[in-house]
Amino acid sequence: THFPGLWCAATPGAGFAETPIFTRALSPGREPRQPWEPTLWRQFDATGIAGNLFNVPTLAYAGALDGQKGASDLMEAATKAAGVGLDRFIGPDTAHKYHPETKAALTKRFEELIARGREKVPREVRFSTYTLRYAESAWLRIEGMDQHWERADVIARLSPDNTVAVETKNVSALALHLAPIAIMIDGQPVKMAAPQGPRVLLQKVNGRWRSTADPEAGLRKRPGLTGPVDDAFVEPFLFVRPTGKPLHPETGAWVESELTAARTLWRDVFRGHAPVKSDLEVTDADIAVNNLILWGDPSSNAVLRRVLAQLPVKWDAQSLTFQGKAYDAKHHAPILVFPNPLNPNRYIVLNSGITFRSEGYGNNALQTAKLPDWSIVDLRTSPGPRWPGKIADAGFFNESWK
User: How far is CA 246 from CA 26, 148, 353, in A?
Assistant: First the structure.
């Protein structure tokens, strides 16, 4: 559902479609969810974007007795609501395995779809997303949203005469990897800018669409630069450890503990060693290619000290100030993701690795983002299996990183 332009067909047989249902996160007696957590579930859940299977013929298998059959039940309802077909194959009297005869029927149909292949330039593309981490399908790519974490929808049709008609919702910028002779978008004809090769960039300004050769200047959320904190770890990153004296021993001890925990989690879950350099070893080449994960405070980390004035936080020995609210710097620390002032095409992250913690070791359904774009952590509560301390406040930046 997240990358529908890549596949000619799909046949899921296990897994989950909705995080809260599969993990029973909202069941009585469970720890209450923080207000931003249901929003973050939209990053991975498939039901809300089930309409993307319009471009991916899907054969869903489950044993009739398999507990994971619930996922394809959910997706059958979601695809029906989206007006998209879903072929079901159910193994009779079967638990979590393939029923031989059902598998043979599924395989025959699947191989027919593979033989037909993927339509390279589909005449109609339907695509929905809640985040520009997942931004494209076939020949269209959403370049901007009016509001992240609300669903953005695009239906685009390519006519035989090489004209394109587009309908959008919650979209502020759109790229078409085509060279159409005419475009109609949301009922507005668009006069195209000078040809820029086989790509047309469309932007909505004051409710009106226009063609442009260059994207809008300034900080904005766009593909590869969307948040939340965890988004920084799906591309090259570098842990930057502090070498200086921290503002307060309490902050320094928390930073060292969290850095160790983040490195351990990366090794345990992702089977690799997180790359680490000291703040005095970071080079221009590192800045050019990596998201920089800065550990420490402005006193202990030289790179953080270098960029602090261009981040939306003020931090000294007395106070940590964010959104006009001051916190005691001895007992609080920020976690946030933000475009790197030294390289706006990459992220800065303060004091966090992947935001799920040891609770997530037991099941990959728990390995989802737990913190949004920014958080203020009260260090007087010790880190635990779910949180790095007490979350005093947390939230998302808007589309302009405000």
Answer: 40, 35, 19
- pLDDT band for position 195 (50/70/90)? low
* Long-range CB contacts for residues 205-210, cutoff 8 Å, separation at least 24: 209/185
Q: In this structure, are residues 288 and 298 in contact, taking their beta carbons and an 8 Å threshold? A: no
Tens of pLDDT, residues 22-63: 999 999 998 899 999 999 999 999 999 999 999 999 999 999
Q: Give me the pLDDT at residue 192, please.
A: 79
Q: Cis omega (within 30 of 0) on the bond before 385?
A: no
For residue 128, the one-letter residue type is: S
User: In a 3-state reduction of DSSP, which class is residue 68?
Assistant: coil
Residue 2 CA to residue 185 CA, distance in Å, equals 23
Residue appearing with tokens 């005691």: 328
- With 0.70 as the threshold, say if the pTM is over it: yes
88 by Cβ neighbours in 10 Å (0-12 / 13-18 / 19+) ranks as middle
Q: How far is CA 114 from CA 107, 120, 153, in A?
A: 10, 13, 27
Residue 193 has pLDDT above 80, yes or no: no
End-to-end CA distance of the chain: 30
CB 174 within 8 A of CB 143: yes
Short-list 109, 51, 114, CA closest to 85 = 51
Q: In the block, which residue shows the tokens 């398999």?
A: 66
Amino acid identity, residue 315?
Answer: W
Neighbouring residues of 362: CB distance < 8 A, sequence distance ≥ 6: none
Could you tell me the strand order of the sheet in which 163-169 lies? 124-129, 152-158, 163-169, 182-185, 188-190
pLDDT at 196: 60
The neighbour count for residue 259, using CB atoms within 10 Å, is: 22
Closest residue by Cα to residue 329 from 256, 242, 252, 244: 252
Considering the chain, what is the average pLDDT of its residues?
Answer: 95
Residues 6+ apart with CB under 8 A from 52: 1, 2, 4, 126, 127, 128, 137
Q: Cβ–Cβ contacts within 10 Å for residue 125, how many?
A: 24
Read off the pLDDT of each residue in 383-397 and give the average, rounded to a whole number. Answer: 97
Q: In what order do the strands lie in the sheet with 291-294?
A: 276-278, 237-241, 291-294, 343-350, 332-340, 374-378, 390-395
Distance CA 335, CA 255 (A): 11
Q: How confident is the model at residue 84 (pLDDT cuts 50, 70, 90)?
A: very high
| pLDDT above 70 for 194 | no
